[in-house]
Amino acid sequence: MPHKRSVWDGVLIAVLAVAACIMLLPYAWMVLSSLKSNMEIVSGSGGFFPSQPSLEGYRTVFQDAPFVTWLLNSLVTSVIITVITLLTSSLAGYIFAKHQFKGKRLLFMLILATMMIPFQVIMIPTYLITSELGLVNNLMAIILPNLVSSYGVFLAKQFIEEIPQDLLEAARIDGAGEFRLMLRIISPLIMPMLSALGIFTFMNSWNNYLWPLIVLNDESKMTVPLALVYFNGTHQVNYNVVMSAAVLITIPVIIVFLIFQKQFIKGLTMTGMK
Predict the structure, then answer these.
(1) How far is 18 from 5, CA to CA, in rounded Å?
(2) What is the pTM of this model?
(3) What are phi and psi of 114, to 5 degrees?
(4) How far apart are CA 247 and CA 239, in angstroms?
(5) Which residue pairs from 28-35 have beta carbons closer than 8 angstroms and sit at least 24 positions apart in sequence?
(6) Which residues of the chain carry a pLDDT beneath 50?
(7) Where does residue 175 fall: left (phi above 0), alpha (psi -120 to 50 degrees), or beta otherwise?
(8) Exposed, middle or buried: residue 74 (CB in 10 Å: 0-12, 13-18, 19+)?
(9) Residues in CB range of 64: below 8 A, 6 or more apart
């Protein structure tokens, strides 16, 4: 029998709808502000919607700055970080979940402990190491410190622990080595988790602002979050240009999420948390 909605169901739906509108309001304001003139935003005379929609802010973004280069820099670094993080997380998670070795528990606890340390604490040592390696103003300075994720290792371990040991033993009896076992058996089974972790990693890398601000001074090596600083003038802020850049920065993240949303939700709901 179909479930009959009660009055409380209607109230709950209304509350969720209001909450969704509140969460989406800043994004709607950002998009609409990108279509306004800077004078209209500063004066506040146009209200919520633009009185005369214009794409001048978007034209300024592409004409006055190498924004396409910044997009490519962010895309390259984010994709490389995401792919290698998924590889290192799945391999380490498999080792911790299915293999026994001396010091395993202590090593895993040390990895988990790094999740509690804010990046600001290790920022100066990381910069000094990066400088000693000659990687300042190099995209490798963005990539190298982010190739291993303690959260990714933890998530992969929790997920792989749910795979029956008998299944792995049967594959080994059939002659599967560790590489084939990982490639043919484990990887397909943990694909939802990898999708969820991949989206998280890509979003964090794409939106990373503080570390690129520290290690990148060359305009040609900048990533898109730094564009928001670039378009801030010394004495005046062109708000419509900044909002246009913010919209363009947000679009790739939305596209990635829409493509992988089913795997993302499935990965969150299936991950075992022992």
Answers:
(1) 19
(2) 0.82
(3) -65, -20
(4) 12
(5) 30/243, 30/246, 30/247, 30/250, 31/243, 31/247, 33/239, 33/240, 33/243, 34/58, 34/240, 34/243, 34/244, 34/246, 34/247, 35/240
(6) 1, 234, 272-274
(7) left
(8) buried
(9) 241
Cβ proximity of 220 and 76 under 8 Å: no
- For residue 144, what are the contacts with CB-CB under 8 A and spacing of at least 6? 130, 135
Q: Where are the alpha helices (DSSP H) in the chain?
A: 7-34, 38-43, 56-63, 67-98, 104-113, 119-132, 140-143, 150-160, 165-173, 178-180, 187-189, 191-206, 210-215, 227-230, 239-270
Alpha-carbon distance of 64 to 50, in angstroms, equals 23
Q: What is the pLDDT of residue 274?
A: 43
* Rounded Cα gap, residues 55 and 199, in angstroms: 30
Residue 6's contacts (CB-CB under 8 Å, 6 or more residues apart) are none
d(CA 146, CA 205): 8
Q: Which residue has the tokens 């040592």?
A: 125
Which residue in the block uniquely carries the two structure tokens 């939700």? 265
Phi, psi of 232 (to 5 degrees): -85, 115
* Count of beta carbons in the 10 Å neighbourhood of residue 165: 10
Beta carbons of 157 and 93 less than 8 angstroms apart:
yes
CA dist 260 and 121 (Å) reads: 33
CB atoms within 10 A of CB 264: 20
Name which of 82, 76, 73, 124 is nearest 230 in CA terms: 73
Helix, coil or strand: residue 38: helix
Please state, in angstroms and rounded to a whole number, the distance separating the CA atoms of residues 83 and 133. Answer: 23
C-beta of residue 229 within 8 angstroms of C-beta of residue 216: no
